[in-house]
Design a protein that fits this description.
two-stranded antiparallel ribbon, globular, four-stranded antiparallel sheet, alpha+beta
Length: 152
């Protein structure tokens, strides 16, 4: 016991209190998610979606354009106004209702927290078009999403 006769808030032996155990589990899960994000980034060719790109995406864009700069039909969508706790797995499961999803990337700031934006890529442009029709102005995790073709 400490001076003053009070006992510690948790056992002093080698066991860890449940509160500290849960914190450790959450931190390990966050690190595993960060590592998966880094691996996906390397596989995609190391596209950088840092916070400096936020302004570029929040600008106005013609949602109806389904072709990128090279004239090829786009299968890649930009999603904004995500809840900050929405994971890429949750988003992929949701957007899978519109078709076959190739990958999902939720943008994270340098602190590792979600920026409330994501990219969803489909295997077919018809699925991407359907996703815009279905999920634009749709509520997911308590937030109304904005979905449009990605500029890249």
């Amino acid at each position: 016991t400490r001076s003053g006769g009070m006992s510690p808030p948790y056992p002093r032996d080698s066991s860890i209190s449940p509160q500290f155990s849960r914190r450790g589990e959450r931190e390990r899960e966050r690190e595993r998610e960060r590592e998966r994000d880094r691996q996906r980034e390397r596989m995609r060719g190391a596209n950088d979606y840092s916070s400096s790109h936020r302004d570029m995406y929040y600008g106005s864009e013609n949602r109806e354009s389904s072709r990128n700069n090279s004239g090829v039909r786009s299968c890649r969508l930009f999603v904004k106004n995500l809840h900050f706790n929405t994971t890429w797995q949750r988003l992929k499961d949701t957007f899978r209702k519109a078709g076959s999803v190739r990958f999902v990337d939720v943008f994270q700031g340098s602190d590792g927290h979600s920026m409330g934006m994501a990219v969803v890529e489909y295997d077919h442009h018809e699925d991407a078009r359907r996703a815009i029709d279905v999920f634009d102005n749709c509520e997911v995790d308590g937030r109304i999403l904005e979905v449009r073709y990605d500029r890249k």
